[in-house]
Prior knowledge:
The protein is α/β, with parallel strands linked by helices. It has helices at residues 46-52, 83-89, 104-114, 121-131, 135-138, 151-163, 181-194, 207-213, 236-241, 246-252, and strands spanning 6-17, 20-31, 35-39, 63-71, 74-75, 90-93, 169-173, 199-203, 216-222, 228-235. Strand 4 (63-71) and strand 5 form a beta hairpin.
Amino acid sequence: MIHATVSLEAKGLELWYGKFQALRGISVVIPHNQITAIIGPSGCGKSSLLRCFNRMNDLIPGSRVKGEVLFDGRSIYGADVDPTEVRYRIGMVFQKPNPFPKSVFDNVAFGPRVNGIQGNLEERVEHALRRAALWDEIKDRLHKSAMQLSGGQQQRLCIARTLALEPEVILMDEPCSALDPVATLKIEDLMKSLVEEYTIVIVTHNMQQAGRVSDMAAFLMMEEDRAGTLVEYGPTAQLFTNPKDKRTEDYITGRIG
Length: 257
């Protein structure tokens, strides 16, 4: 089914927040340089699964993980693994644009400065803004507040901030849900451009968006105890036109969800 190089892999992944089990038995392979969409009803664990891929759940008190998440074949939950290093290589873009109350330049330069990255900072910032398809719009406003940008520009700025650290994987949690249709289209076009260089995993409620941008799709649902489980995973075109599980078909056609 998957002929591309594997970038991320979950094996029997389980997640708890305190006594509540959020994910059960998730096994999925994320191919390199492709866009994988995680879809499913609200509360089924989509964002929780995404956060497992770069250990963001570690920041939530009481969370614990069983099973494995492999990145380039190595467990990211190993005792000798620095979670900060994981997040450095596997970046995250959140649902709502969250620029810092700083200048555009300082937003993009923040990560490289904090991590002590050497080299020409101006070049790195410009490259990240160009990759985020934002440079031409804001090159004359680099030293003005990022809070003055539109919502769509702020989200692309947050993507540029992630790109400035030169990650290998970009995780996107509902990156367009707070944006209008025009800004959404720009983010979707940007994803199609970025996937030439990066592996992208996106959580989306928008079936049309998943159909437009993703190569692979993972459909999650809640069991009776509210734990999220993987119902079906495969090429997006197959899931959308010829799903193997009736629950997948019912969700995609809007009969459940």
